[in-house]
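Extended Data, panel c. Modelled sequence:
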Amino acid sequence: MPNVFPGRIVVHIAHVLILFLLFWAYTAVAVAAGPEQTSRQQWTLEQAVHQALAHNPDSEAARQRIVQAQTALEQAKAGLYPHLSLNGGYTRTNTPLLSFGNILNQGQFSEAIDFNRPGTTDSIFGQIMLRYQLFNGGRNQAARLAAGKGLEAAVAQEQVTREQLSLEVIRSFHTILQARANTAARRAAAASLKKSLDTARARFQEGTLLKEEVLMLEVEQAGSDEALVQARHSERLARQAMAVLLGEMPSELQLVEHDQDGLSIPEEGRALQRPEQAAMEYMVAAQEAALTQAKAARYPNADAFASYQVEQGTAMDEGSGDSWAAGLRLSQTLFDGKGTRAAIAREEARLAELHAQAQKLKLALALETEEARLNLTQETEKLSVSERRLQSAQESTRLTRLRFQEGLCTSSELIDAEKRLAEAEAAHAQAKHGRRIAIAQLRRSYGLPQLDPQ
């Protein structure tokens, strides 16, 4: 017999090489995909919330509004500091007034110069100037205060966005779990009906069941399959919607169920800690500063300045001259066509509007808290009722299935029992996750964190 041993060794080596290449290719793809792709196989509630806070466009927009407010504050602070500027240039002229000025500046005056025709002169000059506003009615201070309060309001609004995103993620998360439980219930109902249909067909073959009973079960099974398709579609849409909420392209996310019942329920009478209230208070304070800024236009302005200029000419024996200037400027607007009065009235109206909005917000938040608490009470009661309903439906369906197998009940009775069980399972899942959403809404209404502190 020919020796095949070396050939087997070659085959084994080839298999090892193929496995190595496949492993290397898989590793390369995983590395290229990065942690983003590999970490998205399954999501816990905490991971989903953190993902949304980091990558949702609303969260990013809120962060950019903080950056804008910070730059506005820096811009407002600039008015409190002196301004230093540097100027320079070159001119050439034969205009008598300008040319005579160049002659004087460069120290080239003589009695032989014709004042009417001093000739062509040029000037290369450089100037450094320092300006400082001594008083402007408090406009700079008011602008800085308004910008500072605007920054604090932007920070509070960013917290509002974060809390709202957290709530939306929790609602979407449990909506998916509700849809998943509904799909499981529909799948179980379809499997049970199929099993009952097989039993019915066997009994029909034995002559112990009418054809009408078999047809009724076939129709019901078709309806159950259709309900299962719809449940799967709803679950898929819910997963894709949550992916968008996380700042991702639509995809079917895999979730790890989270027990949120461990979070405490706020007691009645607890003080609200809503960032919306803080943001409104900062906005009111910023508008009060804006009103002060508008009223400052009634007061005079006082500026101090100092400059030093170096000038060099080439047309007249390259004359040169240095000069300096310093002084104080005062100005007072006597009449501006009632512009200042209109600006003040506008800012006062804006402030009154904000006060009205603050009162409206206070009432709305109180109503939201009360609605959230009532909703939690309702969901808790629904969960208790759904648990009893589910237990009864499970036992009733179990007995009905046994009776049908023994030929002691009709297909319609079995179909009704299966329907009641599927509805009870779906209602229980709806109530279970609805209560968890209600807890999140109540905590949101009090301004409490949605996740356990790490």
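Confidence is low (pLDDT under 50) at residues 1-6, 26-39. This feature is highlighted in the accompanying rendering.
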